[in-house]
Amino acid sequence: MNVSLGQDFARRGVQPWTRCDHCAIRLHAPCGAIQDAIGMSDLERARAPSRHVPAGDALFEQGAPSDRSFTILRGWVAVTQVTSDGRFLILRFALPGDVVAFERRSSVNRCGAVAVGDATVCSFTRSRQGRLELEHPSFDARHRAAEGGILEDAEETLASIMGRGARERVSHLLFQLAWRGLRRRPSPGDEIDAPLSQIQIGLATGLTAVHVSRTMRRLRESRVVAFESHRLTIHDPAALERLAGVSTEGTALWS
Amino acid sequence: MNVSLGQDFARRGVQPWTRCDHCAIRLHAPCGAIQDAIGMSDLERARAPSRHVPAGDALFEQGAPSDRSFTILRGWVAVTQVTSDGRFLILRFALPGDVVAFERRSSVNRCGAVAVGDATVCSFTRSRQGRLELEHPSFDARHRAAEGGILEDAEETLASIMGRGARERVSHLLFQLAWRGLRRRPSPGDEIDAPLSQIQIGLATGLTAVHVSRTMRRLRESRVVAFESHRLTIHDPAALERLAGVSTEGTALWS
DNA sequence: CGTCCGTTTGAGCTTAATCAACGGACGTGG
DNA sequence: CCACGTCCGTTGATTAAGCTCAAACGGACG
């Protein structure tokens, strides 16, 4: 089939991926088992002593040399970047079980990481990580799955942000965070503690804090989500998912 | 150091990563060796018969079942996605040597791929790929590096797009494509053949084709880049790089 | 009690999307 | 060979979205 990229190629009814009901943001796959009990206990057994990071503290700084990767055990961590023209932005949030800074190719951190709310993490040196991957195939698999999941999330976020619209961007972020925080698809009335500020939501969506405020007021007024005093309430998950533009409903062209 | 995410935390003079002068978009690492002669010959030896994909044809379609990953040998390929609300966008471009659709977790393509200009690709089944990774550590390493590189590119694109501004988005894309196309940092006067349309640039930057046109006219008038009849001319690489917001110059806080 | 910080709201402005039209390149069919 | 249609690039006019500036409010905390 010839698909001319330049014309009416869009909207061919493709309804892409579905989502695993366990592990938040992955899709179609048999659930990368990121938070699998086995994976976590493996990890716990092998971990370096855990470290507490108070809210607002940097877990590590962009550009600083480092030979460690971190696994979040408790709390939220923002993966941040300062661009060369001085803008500051949040690339993604890491929740408990997520791995941060696990690329091996560089001895210098490409991004920074800041604790959002109090957090506890454990870390491996890269050499130890390499040994663990060799010795424990399950650890290696978990690690690869985590990396792949981050790529998928990044592309999903990219899609969310390229498709212009503040409401969609914010909805996508909140929906993703709710799902990952709950470890399941949100139901009406679900609440989660989210140690976020609207400023951080803005940094993660490429919006101004003031515009985030307006957007979230509209979302609140239309009874989709409410976010007050660090507590996120999902009133209408279906609407939120629709707005987020990553719907799992709908007919796939290929089942 | 306590970094309150909410206030003046920005512009701390962090000048993050540098770039390898060989392999385009990676950074600080000792050059992922994506196009390394060894990697490529390994690949050629092991490859399935190559396949020609005429311009505009789909290499594979989003949502279609597939157990193959593809390596671009010639031409450019756009990795595309149709969102659930019908928007069509280009997540990234794959150039010769790049690998596409190499996640193993799903039997269904998360994205589509369309040849931009004529392309030649070769493909592996996932099982063969797994075997190759076990048998040839260098193949495995190349593969991992490619995946990591894609993640870095995706995050860089994300940063480029989140930092509002059409000029910056277009500059970033052109700069990245020029670098990857040339396999080195662009010099003044460099030209590369880019089988792109402005429509595709729009799809990859989240902008309208008309606004891409205006933006590129401004870039042309300010003698930064020209793009005419599928030929991209870099007049002022430094300015382009500055606009792209991924400068390698500048002092890093940590050398 | 005062300060700091995050949120909210308003007013004006900038940017980019939208709508519309035109010209050129190219291919197709008469 | 020419007429026509299509697609791409370009430009103008208008509209909508989001940013900037500014002010006020409220809670947390010293």
Question: Could you name the key traits of this structure?
Answer:
homodimer, 255 residues, alpha+beta, six-stranded antiparallel β-sheet, three-stranded antiparallel β-sheet, globular, disordered N terminus, DNA-binding
What layout of secondary structure does this protein have?
2 copies of one chain form a homodimer.
Chain A: H1 37-46, E1 51-53, E2 58-60, E3 68-82, E4 88-94, E5 99-100, E6 112-125, H2 126-135, H3 137-162, H4 166-182, E7 191-193, H5 198-205, H6 209-221, E8 225-228, E9 231-234, H7 237-244
Helix pairs in contact in A: 2-3, 4-5, 4-6, 4-7, 5-6
Chain A binds a DNA duplex (30 and 30 nucleotides) through helix 6.
Structural class computed from helices and strand pairing of chain A: alpha+beta
Please give the most extensive interface between any two protein chains, plus how many residues each contributes. Answer: A-B, 81 and 81 residues
Number of helices of chain A: 7
In percent, how helical is the residue content of chain A? Answer: 25-40%
Number of strands of chain A: 9
Low-confidence stretches of chain A: 1-39, 247-255
SSE order of chain A, one letter for each helix or strand: HEEEEEEHHHEHHEEH
- Give the overall pLDDT of chain A as a whole number: 75
Main sheet overview of chain A: 6 strands, antiparallel
Distance between the termini of chain A: 19 Å
**Strand proportion of chain A:** 15-25%
Q: Using the alpha-carbon principal axes, give the shape of chain A.
A: globular
List the quaternary state of the chains. homodimer
**What is Rg of chain A?**
19 Å
